[in-house]
Amino acid sequence: MKYTVITGASSGIGYESALAFAKKGKNLILVARRKDRLESLKSLINELYKDLDVVLTVSDLSNPKQAYDLYNSLKSYEIETWINNAGLGDSSQVIQENLDKIENILKVNIESLTILSTLYAKDYADYEGAQLINVSSAMGYMVALGSVVYSATKYYVSAFTEGLANELINNKISVKVLAPAVTETEFINKSLNVTEFDYKAGVSNYHSAKEMAEFMITLYESDKVIGIVNEKYEFNLLDGIYPILRGL
Ligand code: NAP
Questions:
Q1: Residue 15 C-alpha to ligand 1 middle, in angstroms?
Q2: Which of 21, 91, 174, 182 is the most exposed place for a label (fewest CB within 10 A)?
Q3: Could you tell which of 30, 39, 88, 106 is best to mutate to test the pocket of ligand 1, judged by most ligand atoms within 8 Å of the CB?
Q4: Which residues contact 83 (CB under 8 A, 6 or more apart)?
Q5: Per-residue pLDDT tens digits for 153-193
């Protein structure tokens, strides 16, 4: 049995991606902190696709030790795809930022993502069909004032993932970056600390989480490294964006 791991599957892009991979017949290992949300998603998938196995794992990735524990707890599974989607944002000027929030963002968006990517790539570099997909952001290629910490974490995700993709270019694994722009999920509510952000009034364009999950599948099925939403809200597949320095 082969599995697809999705972190941050309890809501938004991760939730819809779990449904999209289930539709493609993939057994799933779903990770987040909110177990009740994961359980409802598992029930829905079991109803829709009776033959699939769905494994739930509760993990708090703001504690990087739990990233190691998560990976080690899954050692007995054959994992054909690993998607690091869990992430959180901020929406304030750096000098007004709460340092506890900054630490959480760094730990989830950078530290745990790096630990999980590295452990997976070490084990699956030469596994036929293996894929590692890291969810960055259009803000991983453009610094957003008012969300500088978040942008910088996503620059890290993009640079790390593009670099890893190039280091492993002659191995069997494919390493990819999904870079969404504004997508209707819980993300902006949590970033702005509001109960319900009004997308129609608040932004000129956005995607639904379901559309983003479809882009995730398009990237998964392509041989490109990057799937990015551009300023016109079009989804583009690219070989790479960051300059790569070889042979030091
Ligand atoms: P979301 O609805 O808030 O989902 C975030 C997911 O991450 C949830 O499942 C959450 O689960 C999980 N998560 C957060 N903190 C965690 C922690 N400490 N440990 C484990 N899991 C944690 O937001 P989303 O938009 O789907 O975000 C998914 C990814 O897309 C993120 O990496 C985000 O940066 C990226 N992105 C989003 C947008 C956008 O506009 N929505 C744009 C560009 C990029 P629990 O709370 O249950 O743990």
A1: 10
A2: 91
A3: 88
A4: 4, 5, 6, 7, 14, 17, 132, 133, 134, 135, 216
A5: 999 999 999 999 999 999 999 999 999 999 999 999 999 98
